[in-house]
Design a protein that fits this description.
Belongs to the autoinducer-2 exporter (AI-2E) (TC 2.A.86) family. It comes from Vagococcus humatus. It holds the Pfam family AI-2E_transport. By secondary structure, the protein is mainly alpha-helical. The chain folds into two domains: 132 residues, no CATH class; 150 residues. Helix content is 84%, strand content 0%. The longest helix is centred in the N-terminal third of the chain and has 43 residues. The termini are far apart.
Amino acid sequence: MEWWSRFKDNDSLRRTSVLAFICVMLYVTRSIISLVLLTFILTYLSTRLVNWGHRKTHVSKKILAIIWYVAIGGFLYIALTKYLPILFNQTFAMIESVFNFYQQPDQNSKLLDWIGKNISFNEIREHVTSGVKVIFTTLSSIGSMGVTFLLSLVLSFFFIIEVDWVKSFSHSFLTSKIGLFCEDVAYLGKKFTNTFGVVLEAQFLIAVINTGLTVLGLSIMKFPQLLSLALMVFILSLIPVAGVIISCIPLTLIGYSIGGVQHVVYILIMITVIHALESYILNPKLMSSKTNLPVFYVFVVLMFSEKFFGVWGLITGIPVFVFILDLLEVKHETAHSTKKVE
């Protein structure tokens, strides 16, 4: 058929059709989307770490992978048995102390007096406390998320252990009757890994650095419940750009309850410095120039991705957007290069 020959010869149309088919399949299997994303994230990050360790030590990749996954298992065991109860208690203690402070404002403080009269902290506390209970109950119980994470861990482990066999077996599909389809899937998969994976890896590294710097600053200011605050900052730091700004709100509320306006100023200065470090040093170093998006675009993408994909959208929205830009071959200059041209 002539139309089929034209379709096969048109790379852009054919790959667009394959991408649409993949999107439909992901939508149909959306009930296991968490398993797919977690498996990809764990596999990508673990593979990068194992390859890095192999280059540095020349130890077998399989041995390094076993050591790495045993370390993950040990960390999870210690975290669940020792630190989860501490985290649970610290979080509730922090919520109670902050709400008690704002419910009993100093009579000389008009700001706190106004807040106390116009905001129902009892109702807010009930919602926040119930929400935290749900989160910790989900994390500490053997529920669907725990099973999903365990399955993702097992799948990523076997992928890394048998990576050569997996690649060889997958390559055999290229010479099958669906070879053309598999070639397009391989092309899209490579694009996806080179954009989504790289950006996601950078987000994790930036989150670790931001959390370390923030916790260091909070410890200097004598903040209590650092373990709970570290977890909050790390999770928010996984959201590009916006996470650092969002974390400013609870930190300033807690800071005011501890040291007044002086601590609020210190926190704002600390957040500003960390945000500048992320924007002008970490992002250019860890990500390619094409991932340097204007803050306006970042917030727009995050709003839409959160609307359609929930919490996962906040974490994966920017990497997916960068992947789409790469497919569309959208090229743009950074702000610095634009200034030079002008």
